[in-house]
Amino acid sequence: QVQLVESGGGLVQPGGSLRLSCVVSGSIFRIYRVAWYRQAPEKEREFVAVIDSGSNTKSGSSTNYADSVRGRFAISRDNAKNTVYLQMNSLKPEDTAVYYCNFNGNWGQGTQVTVSS
C-alpha cells in the first residue's frame, strides 16, 4: 500500500521561504514521476510542479512548473530517501493553499501553507 506523508508547511510572511517534503513508502520510488499540487479555499486543486523519474536532480531529472510559480519554486527528489521536495521562495499571499504530493495516482493528506503578514 502506497503512503505519502507531506510536511514543512506553516505560516510565513510575504517574501519568505518554505521547504515542503513528501516521503513515499510502499512503492519503488525512483521509477515514477512525482508532482505537487495545491488547493486554495473554494478553488479547484491545481498543478504546481512535477519531476520525472530516474535520476536525482543533480543528474538532471526533467522538471516542469506552473507559470504562477516558475522562477520562485524548485522541485527536487532524493531517491535514496524516497522523498520529493518543494523549495518555495518569494512567497506571495496567493500561494496560500493546502499543498499535496501526488505519486503514481496516490495523494498525501496535504500540508497547509499560509502566506500572510
What does this structure look like?
The chain has 117 residues and is mainly beta. It is built from no helices and eleven strands. It has strands at residues 3-7, 10-12, 18-25, 34-39, 46-51, 63-65, 73-78, 83-88, 97-103, 106-107, 111-115. Strands 2, 4, 5, 6, 9, 10 and 11 form a seven-stranded mixed sheet that branches. Strand 7 (73-78) and strand 8 form a beta hairpin.
- Let me know the largest β-sheet: 7 strands, mixed
How many β-strand runs? 11
Tertiary shape = globular
- DSSP helix fraction: under 10%
Q: What is the average of the pLDDT values? A: 92
How many angstroms separate the termini?
Answer: 40 Å
Structural class: mainly beta
Return Rg in Å: 13 Å
Question: Number of helical segments?
Answer: 0
Strand content: over 45%
Low-confidence stretches: none
* Strand and helix order: EEEEEEEEEEE
Descriptive tags:
single chain; globular; mainly beta; four-stranded antiparallel β-sheet; 49% strand; 117 residues; seven-stranded mixed β-sheet
Task: Please provide a brief summary of the model.
The protein has 117 residues and is an all-beta fold. It contains no helices and eleven strands. The model has no long low-confidence stretch (mean pLDDT 92).
